[in-house]
Automatic annotation (TrEMBL), chain A:
Pathway: Carbohydrate metabolism; tricarboxylic acid cycle
Record's keyword annotation contains tRNA processing: no
Keyword Transport applies: no
PANTHER family on file: SUCCINATE DEHYDROGENASE [UBIQUINONE] IRON-SULFUR SUBUNIT, MITOCHONDRIAL, SUCCINATE DEHYDROGENASE IRON-SULFUR PROTEIN
UniProt protein name: Succinate dehydrogenase/fumarate reductase iron-sulfur subunit
The 2Fe-2S ferredoxin-type domain, residue ranges: 18-105
InterPro entries: 2Fe-2S_ferredoxin-like_sf, 2Fe-2S_ferredoxin-type, 2Fe2S_fd_BS, 4Fe4S_Fe-S-bd, Beta-grasp_dom_sf, Helical_ferredxn, SDH/FRD_Iron-Sulfur, Succ_DH/fum_Rdtase_Fe-S
UniProt similarity note: Belongs to the succinate dehydrogenase/fumarate reductase iron-sulfur protein family.
TrEMBL record, chain B:
Annotated source species: Streptantibioticus ferralitis
Keyword Flavoprotein applies: yes
Keyword Cell cycle: no
Name of this protein: Fumarate reductase/succinate dehydrogenase flavoprotein subunit
Span of domain FAD-dependent oxidoreductase 2 FAD-binding: 10-440
Highest taxon of the lineage: Bacteria
Keywords: Flavoprotein, Oxidoreductase
Entries under NCBIfam families matching the protein: PRK07803.1
Annotated InterPro entries: FAD-dep_OxRdtase_2_FAD-bd, FAD/NAD-bd_sf, Fum_R/Succ_DH_flav-like_C_sf, Fum_Rdtase/Succ_DH_flav-like_C, SdhA/FrdA/AprA, Succ_DH/fumarate_Rdtase_cat_sf
Fumarate reductase/succinate dehydrogenase flavoprotein-like C-terminal domain span: 505-604
Length: 266, 656
C-alpha cells in the first residue's frame, strides 16, 4: 500500500497526511495515541506537535523555545531515538511511515512529552564552580585561543539532557542516579579542569579526583552513547570524559602526587 | 479566599534571561533574599538566541574605541530618540560588565595577544562585539546561570540550604503584580506600592503568591504578536502588560525592530534569525540580478560614513582607517527597509527574500569556524550549505525598542514604587532602533542597576513592608481561571463552542504582521485597531479543555490578554507618530521630522482601576499622550559635529 496522493498545502508546497503515535499521560500512566495530521514540505517534528496542539489536542504538553536547536528544550524520543524535535526533519521519514513520539525515558513523566528533569539541576549544583584566579582584575584576563578552545567545545552544550537520558548508567538503573553526575556534568568538570585560569587547585580542590571519587566518573565505560545523541556534535566521550579519566588515573598513581597528598594531610 | 502557595522574599525578579539573572545576582550580592521566576526551565531564556555578540568599547580590536564613540553610535542608531542618560550609562559600564563575566567563568573568543576578541557589526564604528563564535547569547546565559549556582553553593556551604537566599522558580508564569493593601485602596485601585506577584506553576497549574516589596520586570519582548518573528513562545509581552496593569506607563511602543535577515524558507522556519555577524564578517546582500543593492539605500544622514563602491567597501575589512564601511553594515532598520523594497520591486529570491552570500567571501573552513551555528542551522533545516551557496533571507520581527518608562539610573518604573524594569521590557535606551550587540550589553548594565536599586529600595523599607490583600488574590485567581468556564461565543446562544485560543492567536499575529508591520499606513493601522477590539471581545470567550496540569492551551488563553494589550499600544502609537524614524516606517509620512525627535508617546491603561472590563471595542484599553524628552546634556551634544546634529535636532534645540 502506498500513501494517499499528496494534496497541496495552502502555500502550494507538497503536503501529505502523516500518521503519528504520541504518548499521552502523566505520572500515573498513559498510552500512545494515534493521530493523522497534515505534514508540509520542510517541516520538523515540532511543527507537527504544534499543529496537533492547535487543531486536535489543545492541551498536549510539550516544552519548546527557540525552534532552532539553540535552547535544548524540546528533547524527546522519536521512533525510540533521543532527539530534539525542532531539529528532526519530517523528510527523514517516508510519508507512509508512522512516527512515534515519546517523552525522554530516563526522567519521570510530568505530562505527555514533558518530563521532570530536576535530576540535572540537582547534579549541576554539586559540581564546584569556576574559581577565579586571585589578584587578576577586571580586563586583565589573558588566555590564548588554543587554550580556551577545548573548554569552549564543552560550553557549546545547550543542556538538552539527551546525553543524560541516553546514558545507560542511569537510563536503566535508577539506583545509580545518586552517585553519578552523568555525561553533561562530568563534561562540566572537564571544562573547568581545562579552563586556563581556573584556580581550583590553588584553592585546595582537585577536580580530577573529585570527578572520580564524588561524581561517578568510574561508572562511565565509554560506550559513547552520549556523543552519538549530542545535537551539538560535542565529542563528549573522546574530548571530555576519556581525558578526564586519564588525568584522574594519572593523579591516583603519580608517586609525586601521592607523596604531596601525604605531606599535605599532615 | 483562594488557596495559594505563599512565599516571602525581599526582591522578586520576573524573567530569567540576561537582565533577570544579572538583576538577581546583584540583589543577592547585596545580601537580600531574592527569587527569580521564569516561564521556561532555568537556562532556556530567549537570551540564548542572541548570536553575534556583546557591544562594549574595550578597545581590544581598535585602540581608538571608547565610551564616547559607543555612545555616539548608539544615539545615531536610535536616530537620537534614545534617552541620552541611558545611552551614556550603557556605553560607560558595558566593558566592566563584560569583563566581570570572565571572572565568573565565561570564555570569549580571544585576540592574538590573549584579550577578548571583538567583531564588526552594523552601526558600530569600530569592531566592538565580544563574542563566542555565533553563540554569544548561550555563553552569556550559561555564565549567569552558573554564577547563580555558585552563589547557591556559597549559601549551602554556610547554612546547608542552596536556596536560602536565592531561589529560581522555574516554569512559573506571573499574571499580576500585586499592590500594597492600604495604598491600593486609598488611591482608588491604582497607584500604591508594589507588594508582590501572583502567578501559577505551569507544571501543576497551582497558584502562588510571592510577597515582596520590590519587583524587577525582566520579561523580554513582544514578538509573539507578529506572524513572522525570531521570538519564542515566551515573548508575549508579559512584563509590558504587567506594568500597564500595575499603573506604570510604556513609551516608544511604535518602535519595533524587524531584523533584516531571518530565514524565509522552508515555511516552518520562516523568521528564524540569521545573525548579523554574517555581514559583519564579510557577507553581502544581493538581489535576483546579482546586484549588491545596499549601495542604493544609504540615507542622507549616513552618506559620509558608508562606502559608495564595492571596491571601497571590500577594502574596509582589512584597512578600516582608509576605507568607509560597507552599506550592508548600516543599522538594522535601514537594511530591513531596503530588503523589503527590493522584494516589492520584483527583484527578490525564489522564496520572497534576497540573497545573503558569505560563500564567495570567505574560505569554507573560516565560515565554519566563525559561523558554526548558521552553518548547522541552514544545513539541518533548509538543506543549504552556506559555505557553497547563498542563503535566502528577509525581515523578521525581532525586538521591541519600546517598554516600561524607567528612571535611567535606577531602572525604577515611573509612578509605581517598588517596580523596576530592565532589558528589552524597559524603554528608552535604544530610541527608535537598537544596534546589534547593544542588547546583551543593555541586559547586563541595566539588569545590574535594577537589581541594585531594587535591593536598596527593599532594604530601606525595614519593617514598613507592604501587605497583599486577599481581595486582589481572589480577583487574580478568578481572572486566571476564566478560560475553564467561558460560556460560549455569542451571548445567549448556549452550545456555541468557546473560541479556540490558538486560532485567536493566529489571527492576532496575522493582523499585526499585515497591518502594523515593517511599512505602515494610517488606514491599515485604524483597521488593525478595529480588529484588535474585536479580538479582545472574542478572547473573553477563549476556552480550554483538560485540566490545569501543564496545559498549553490554558497558558496561551491567559497570555492573549498581554499580547492584545501590547499590540494595541504598538498600533495606537504607530498611528499617532506621523513621521518615519528607526523601527517605525510610515508609507504616508516617509520622512524623518525633527519636530518629532524630542517627543515620546506614552501609553497608559485607560481604565485606571487596573480592571479589564469588557469595554467598547472602538475605545480600546490604552490612552495615549505625548511627552517631551529631557534635553541632551551639553557635554554629550559636544561629542557630535554640529552639521550632524542639524539633521536630527531642531534649530531651537541647538540654540541657533
Amino acid at each position: 500500500m502506498s500513501a494517499a496522493p499528496a494534496p497541496k498545502a495552502a502555500d502550494g508546497s507538497a503536503a501529505y497526511i502523516g500518521r503519528f503515535k504520541v504518548w499521552r499521560g502523566d505520572a500515573d500512566g498513559g498510552e500512545l495515541k494515534d493521530f493523522e495530521v497534515e505534514v508540509n514540505e520542510g517541516e520538523v517534528v515540532l511543527d507537527i506537535i504544534h499543529r496537533l496542539q492547535a487543531t486536535q489536542a489543545h492541551d498536549l504538553a510539550v516544552r519548546w523555545n527557540c525552534k532552532a536547536g539553540k535552547c535544548g528544550s524540546c528533547s524527546a524520543e522519536i521512533n525510540g531515538q533521543p532527539r530534539l524535535m525542532c531539529m528532526t526533519r519530517m523528510s527523514v521519514f517516508a510519508p507512509d511511515e508512522t512516527v512515534t513520539v515519546t517523552p525522554m525515558r530516563a526522567f519521570p513523566v510530568v505530562r505527555d512529552l514533558v518530563t521532570d528533569v530536576s535530576f540535572n539541576y540537582t547534579k549541576a549544583r554539586e559540581i564546584p564552580s569556576f574559581v577565579p584566579p586571585p589578584g587578576v582584575g577586571l580586563g586583565e584576563y589573558r588566555m590564548r585561543q588554543e587554550d580556551v578552545g577545548r573548554s569552549q567545545e564543552f560550553r557549546k552544550c545547550i543542556e538538552c539532557f539527551l546525553c543524560q537520558n541516553t546514558c545507560h548508567v542511569v537510563r536503566d538503573h535508577e539506583e545509580n542516579k545518586a552517585a553519578f553526575a552523568g555525561p553533561r556534568f562530568l563534561m562540566r568538570i572537564a571544562e573547568l579542569d581545562m579552563h586556563p585560569l581556573d584556580a581550583a587547585e590553588e584553592a585546595g580542590l582537585d577536580r580530577k579526583s573529585a570527578a572520580q571519587d564524588e561524581h561517578g566518573l568510574g561508572y562511565c565505560n565509554i560506550t559513547k552513547c552520549c556523543t552519538e545523541v549530542c545535537p551539538e556534535n560535542i565529542k563528549i566521550t573522546d574530548n571530555a570524559l576519556i581525558p578526564l579519566k586519564e588525568r584522574a588515573v594519572d593523579r591516583k598513581y603519580d608517586p609525586l602526587v601521592w607523596l604531596g597528598n601525604r605531606i599535605r594531610r599532615r | 479566599m483562594t488557596r495559594v502557595e505563599r512565599h516571602t522574599y525581599d526582591v522578586v525578579v520576573v524573567g530569567a534571561g540576561g537582565a533577570g539573572l544579572r538583576a538577581a545576582i546583584e540583589a543577592r550580592e547585596q545580601g537580600l533574599r531574592t527569587a527569580v521566576i521564569c516561564k521556561s526551565l532555568f537556562g532556556k531564556a530567549h537570551t540564548v538566541m542572541a548570536e553575534g555578540g556583546i557591544a562594549a568599547s574595550m578597545g581590544n580590536a581598535n585602540p581608538h574605541d571608547n565610551w564616547q564613540v559607543h555612545f555616539r553610535d548608539t544615539m545615531r542608531g536610535g536616530k537620537f530618540l534614545n534617552h541620552w542618560r541611558m545611552a551614556e550609562l550603557h556605553a560607560k559600564e558595558a566593558p566592566d560588565r563584560v569583563w566581570e563575566l570572565e571572572t565568573w567563568g565565561a570564555l570569549f573568543d580571544r585576540t592574538k595577544d590573549g584579550r577578548i576578541s571583538q567583531r564588526n557589526f552594523g552601526g558600530h564604528e569600530y569592531a566592538r562585539l565580544a563574542h563566542v563564535g555565533d553563540r554569544t547569547g548561550l555563553e552569556l546565559i550559561r555564565t549567569l546561570q552558573q554564577k547563580i549556582v555558585s552563589l547557591q553553593q556559597e549559601d549551602h556551604a554556610r547554612c546547608g540550604d542552596y536556596e536560602d537566599r536565592l531561589r529560581v522558580f522555574q516554569e512559573c508564569t506571573v499574571t499580576r503584580v500585586l499592590k500594597d493593601e492600604e495604598t491600593f485602596r486609598a488611591e482608588g485601585g491604582r497607584g500604591g506600592r508594589v507588594a508582590g506577584v501572583f502567578g501559577y506553576v505551569r507544571e501543576s497549574g497551582r497558584f502562588f503568591v510571592i510577597e515582596a516589596p520590590a519587583v524587577v520586570l525582566a520579561t523580554g519582548g513582544i514578538g509573539k504578536s507578529f506572524k513572522v518573528t525570531s521570538n519564542s513562545w515566551e515573548y508575549t509581552g508579559d512584563g509590558h502588560a504587567l506594568a500597564l496593569l500595575a499603573g506604570a506607563p510604556l513609551i516608544n511602543m511604535e518602535f519595533v525592530q524587524f531584523h533584516p535577515t531571518g530565514m524565509v524558507w522552508p515555511p516552518s522556519v520562516k523568521g528564524i534569525l540569521v545573525t548579523e555577524s554574517v555581514r559583519g564578517d564579510g557577507g553581502v546582500l544581493r538581489n535576483s540580478d546579482g546586484k549588491r543593492f545596499m549601495f542604493d539605500y544609504i540615507p542622507d544622514v549616513f552618506k559620509e560614513k558608508y562606502a559608495q563602491s564595492e571596491e571601497e567597501a571590500d577594502g574596509w575589512y582589512a584597512d578600516p582607517e582608509n576605507h568607509r564601511r560597507p552599506p550592508e553594515l548600516l543599522p538594522r532598520d535601514e537594511v530591513a527597509r531596503a530588503i523589503n523594497s527590493e522584494v516589492k520591486a520584483g527583484r527578490g529570491s525564489p522564496h520572497g527574500g534576497v540573497f545573503l552570500d558569505v560563500s564567495t567571501r570567505l574560505p569554507a573552513e573560516e565560515i565554519k569556524r566563525r559561523l558554526p551555528s548558521m552553518h548547522h542551522q541552514f544545513k539541518e533545516l533548509a538543506d543549504v550549505d552556506i559555505t557553497a551557496e547563498p542563503m535566502e533571507v528577509g525581515p523578521t520581527c525581532h525586538y521591541v525598542m519600546g517598554g516600561v518608562d524607567v528612571d535611567p539610573d535606577s531602572a525604577a518604573a515611573t509612578g509605581v514604587p517598588g517596580l523596576f524594569a530592565a532589558g528589552e521590557v524597559a524603554g528608552g535606551m535604544h530610541g527608535s532602533n537598537r544596534l546589534g550587540g547593544n542588547s546583551l550589553s543593555d541586559l547586563l548594565v541595566f539588569g545590574r542597576r535594577a537589581g541594585l536599586h531594587a535591593a536598596e529600595y527593599a532594604a530601606e523599607l525595614d519593617d514598613d513592608r507592604p501587605r497583599v490583600s486577599a481581595e486582589q488574590v481572589d480577583t487574580a485567581a478568578a481572572e486566571a481561571l476564566r478560560p475553564f468556564s467561558v460560556e460560549g461565543g455569542e451571548p445567549g446562544a448556549p452550545g456555541v463552542p468557546a473560541e479556540n485560543p490558538y486560532a485567536l492567536h493566529q489571527e492576532l499575529q496575522q493582523t499585526m504582521n499585515d497591518l502594523v508591520g515593517i511599512i505602515r499606513r494610517a488606514g491599515e493601522m485604524s483597521e488593525a485597531l478595529h480588529r484588535l477590539g474585536s479580538l479582545r471581545e472574542r478572547s473573553r470567550s477563549a476556552g480550554v479543555e483538560g485540566h490545569r496540569q501543564f496545559n498549553p492551551g490554558w497558558h496561551l488563553a491567559i497570555d492573549l490578554r498581554n499580547m492584545l494589550l501590547v499590540s494595541e499600544c504598538v498600533a495606537r502609537a504607530a498611528l499617532e507618530r506621523t513621521e518615519s524614524r528607526g523601527g517605525h516606517t510610515r508609507d504616508d509620512y516617509p520622512e524623518m521630522d525633527r519636530r518629532w525627535r524630542k517627543t515620546n508617546l506614552v501609553c497608559e491603561l485607560a481604565d485606571r482601576s487596573g480592571e479589564l472590563a469588557a469595554v467598547d471595542p472602538s475605545a480600546g484599553q490604552i490612552r495615549l499622550s505625548r511627552r517631551d524628552m529631557p534635553p541632551i546634556r551639553g557635554d554629550l551634544l559636544a561629542l557630535f559635529e554640529k552639521d550632524e546634529l542639524l539633521k536630527y535636532l531642531t534649530d531651537e534645540e541647538l540654540g541657533t
